[in-house]
From TrEMBL:
Residues 424-445, 515-536 are annotated as: Disordered. Residues 520-531 have a biased composition (Acidic residues). It comes from Natrialba chahannaoensis JCM 10990. The lineage of its organism: Archaea, Methanobacteriati, Methanobacteriota, Stenosarchaea group, Halobacteria. This is Uncharacterized protein.
Amino acid sequence: MQQCPRRSVLGGIGATMAAALAGTSVAATDERADTTSTTTDTTFDDLLAYLPSKVAQDSMVLTATNYDRLLEADQPRDPFPNVGTLDLEAEAISKSVLVTSYTEEFTHPLKVLAGIELEIDTESRETDSGLEYEFADLDDDDAVAGTDGDVVIIAADAETIDAAIDANAGEKDRLLEDESTLEAGLSAFDGSDMRMVRVSDEQLMTPGETDAVPTYFTHAQTVIDADTMEQSIGFEFEDESDITDELIESLEAEFAYNATADEPTVDVDGTFISTTIERDLAAERAVREHDSPGFLRVDREIDLDDDFLEIELGRGDPTPIEDLTFEVGGEEYDRDIWADGHGKLEEGDTIVMDMDDVEPNLSVRLRHDHELGSSSSGTTVLSNFGFSGDFDVDTGEFTVRYADDFPLDGDRLHLAAYDERPYYRPTKDAPEPKASAQPWTGETLSKGTTATLEGVDPGDRVLVGWDGIENSDSIRSLQAQPPGSVSFEYDYESETAEATIEFGDRRRYAAANTAVAEETAADTDDETDTDNTERSADEYELLVDGDRATTQWTDEYDTVTSGTTIDIDGVDVGTEIEVVWAGTDARIGWTRARPSVELEYDDGTVEHVGGEALPASELTADVWTDGDRFEIELADEIDGEFVEGETFAVDADAVSEDEAADEDDREFGTVREVSLRYDTHRIGFALPDR
């Protein structure tokens, strides 16, 4: 179920909180009771004492978390701190204090962790005050770690750990003693199990529209019981006048998408404004476990003579109709129509819309509103129509032909050519069309209707748009394909590739839908390219691994026709060979050089029945069964070359030792496919019963 709560201050600080907590979450399990504590100690003084003044930053977040307490709440995901590559048992950490810096870049200057030991090789180190502790340089983490036996400290450098050890002993200034704003924010919700305070030299996000910049933002969580958690947020301002009625109203709405027993209220204490709620975790779990109706499916064959269009739901638990909204074209649709008499909707049910309201490229969406926000599922009706295209490379004219039966209003149709793929969701940096037109104004398109767009270059993408020329308006995408195609043959033994130009009907390459293209070609006698086409050889450029090849058609020919061939020597397996229209990246043909082997499978035996003779040492067979996937190194089965007539067995004994660490646990099952690889390249396969 995809949840889409509205924008809020909590949503805005979500990334900040995640970074500050530096936590990884794992799904909650039934084993929670075995790992949690019943401690009620919510103080963090023992950890905060390790924070030296030197970690203070203009923009920073300080977070204190009691994991033992938070784990007593039955949340969808259990919080654990991120310990990086350090070999620590995150689940054993009872409490942590984390400092996160945003001044120049996102960093963690200091982490103080309780409840664990540093189980790596350490050496003794002494602080400036003469205090000894155990120290380790974490090369993989670009960090260092230390422990005094009570806590584990992770920092960016050894000097910070020295300062932390000294601060705890009272030999160095402490962060909270020097930074009263941090201390105030951390104690704003005293007794909470998780406290976070952010200060910044840049404007902090606040709810609603206000120019006032808060001194700090604070957030807290407190576990009441397994099904209830108290959650608080607060802002401190410079002046009482900064707390406006609009700010109060906005803050009241911040928890609108939490399951709560009571409406949130806002408290104002001088320059501090806050709100606290009790989350109903049981209700939240029920919402998360509920599969909202969705996966809308519309029959591809729409009969316009029907009274209604039926839309089937492909998933969903039973959900009351009154909790659902059906949107057509972004507007709420009449529930008396679309609900079609249903009291609830679930997987397999059908909703409807009036056929008179159906039009091309129409967005429809079913939305489920619930206590955590909303979930929605949508699709587009009539988003793909049959068009084909013919490109005249000499004139730059691209002719579009309609090949469908649905009558289209030409006043709403556009053509646009792009020299790069347009963005699905346009931005100010999105590419502009190089050519556009509305050639069918005043017409109703029927099968066979054509129009021409000028100013098109080889390789351009031509969109047929409905009510616009953006990618999201497209009901067909076509390619301005230069004349010709190129086929390749590769000889492994001689390391030679052969490239052959062919000319013929190009519509099947220009249209995005091959079936439509072939139908179009069959319905017309107008052939732009024929087998007699002759083009200048310098129009075709051969590339090898992205660079211009030393071999070109111009080396041997002035012009090319169907069947004109060149050989490329010294081609290793894996080499990429491409033919483009000269001076552009418009591709005419492409291949990756690799040998080819024909295989046959018969009752556990795979036979080489045609193709290249290849060194068995270079070959690996991938075996897919209905229970697993295995690898067979052919060098373990065959000496020398794998040649025509050679066989190998596919069974448990043939699986390589590297892949079968514990063959007693392997499920071999029925073989579904055997695929042969040369290095990373698939060069042949066999399917049983075929």
